[in-house]
Amino acid sequence: MSSVTPVARALPQRSAPTSPWMDRAFVFLTGGAALLIVIMLAIIVGNVLLFGTGTLTLDFLFSAPREGMTAGGIFPAIFGTAALVLLMVVALVPFGVGAAVYLHEYARPASWLTRAVRFAVSNLAGVPSIVFGLFGLGFFVQFVGRNMDRALGLDVLWGQPALLWAALTLALLNLPVVIVTTEEALRTVPPDMREASLALGATRWQTVRSVLLPQALPGILTGTILSVARGAGEVAPIMFTGAAYFLPYLPKSPTDQFMELGYHVYVLATQSPDVEATRPLLYGTVLVLLILTFLLNVTAVMLRSRLRARLAGRT
Amino acid sequence: MTKPRTFPPLSRFRGGRPRGETAIVGALKTNAVLAILGLVLIIVFVMKEALPILLDPETQREASLGRFLQAPAWQPVSDHPRYGLLPLIVGTLKVTLVAMAFAMPIGVLAAVFTSEFAPRRLREAIKPVVELLAGIPSVVLGFFALVVMASWLNSTLHLGTRLNALNAGIALSLAVIPTIFTVSEDALRAVPKSFREAALALGASRWQTAWFVTLPAAAAGVSAACLLGLARAVGETMIVLMASGNAAILSGSVFDSARTLSATIAAEMAEVVFGSPHYATLFFLGGLLFVTTFLVNMAAGVLVDRLRRRLGGS
Known about the structure:
The structure holds two protein chains of two kinds. Chain A has helices at about 5-10, 20-50, 60, 75-105, 110-125, 130-150, 165-190, 190-200, 205-235, 260-270, 275-315; strands spanning about 65, 70. Chain A is mainly α. In chain A, strands 1-2 form a two-stranded antiparallel ribbon. Chain A starts with a helix and ends with a helix. Chain B is mostly helical. Chain B has one domain (about 90-310): Orthogonal Bundle (MetI-like fold). Chain B has helices at about 20-50, 50-55, 55-60, 65-70, 85-115, 120-135, 140-155, 165-190, 195-200, 205-215, 220-235, 240-245, 260-270, 275-310; strands at about 75, 80-85. Chain B has a two-stranded antiparallel sheet. In chain B, helix 7 crosses helix 8 (about 165-190), helix 11 runs antiparallel to helix 14 and helix 13 crosses helix 14.
């Protein structure tokens, strides 16, 4: 095709002697860059493993911080993270999956609404996490919460940072993740299945519910796991919407504040009264957070690569 | 090759719509509209809290657009608070530039290696490693920069300030590299094989093919990758908050401490009085970040579209 001419033009005009030496140097240069990424990851993980493993005991995992957070464990932070992520998933997955089903199965690709939704999703994914934090404070806490208090005639219950508001902020932050992965999964469902289902007289919704969604389940699961991994590690969006520096009790209701692993890392690393005494706890907390996010990400990566293999087999 | 079978979207089926189906379509559509609503609410509510800066004379006595530019310093907590944004903007630029100076060559070159030279096995090993790096929470990268890297840098370079823009920038590059790598690699792999084959047939060596043919053909995608990385770097909070020292000083040196826009919001929002000029100013900074990253991301989107159109034909 016409691609040959631009290729010929792109190459250097004066034919440089094609020495194998240059080839090797270039491979080394680019390969070195790739190796550097691997090394950096290894250094970080190695460092945390080296200094963190000693702290990782059952007592550390299942007790509360003591003596101004220079002793004890991180149980409230683990509990808070789990509660936060659970609430987020409950709020996020139905909406994310619903939006993806609409975009892929119902919407006409060229309509203005479809394009507006896609534009919003891709831009939502690029909004800095600290801006989500500001939004959560301005909208959920100050606007929704305060107005709920006013309407219910309460003093201050909803109009303050709380587990619920932090979870909803994270849900919005992760909405693009779930929509994109669910759509990708719907794309892998073979067309024959839709055809067969509709030919058998199933309605569109019956097709979606009993054929497409079960088929897309691995993809939906991938999106959910990825959003949990991200939600567990994000600190900026929850700093002003619900995370607490230290709490002597566990959150009992969605209106309570909570401790969280990522925020606990930040607090231990920057606000400790006694750096040396805190260091083992800090490394232990980082290790727990790292193990958690790694396990989640590895699961998601494996699920997704299986899904992509299925997609590649189709076309 | 057989043409892939396509199936018309369900919306084409105009047959009788059973009862209940319409309601379900409506419900699903509502979910999709929520994404738009989310973005609109973010814009409205961040702007709303920042509005007193433009409209409220009481606030403007302390914090207004003019004062942002004229005030020489950022001293929000004092008897005569001063809200000069210049130190914060310079700090953000410094840290971002350092991060991009590390992340762009490493990310792009590693992508070239992975797509052009690496055997299949190696490629399949590198990509998950990068995804794992992308999965490290930024607070962990910030912790690493604060506790480990700052000490290394200090003992090797003998710097005056332990936490500085260089330290934060390098740590930030770790968060940006996965973005640049992944998007660049996708763009390079989208270049048709015929381009490479033509170059090799014309007598070009492998590195000449990669450098003069494949990389320029994917230029739009690689630029988009760098822009996406830039947007990420400007908006990233926890890493710079922990690793940069956070001193709001006006200095061009990367060896001095720096305070960025994002870190300022994170550090000061907790103690600010609701509705005060300081509060409005922090939301204004958030709006500034939003607009900046929005524009950069849009530019990246335009570049990706252009690449898709150019390579789509062949």
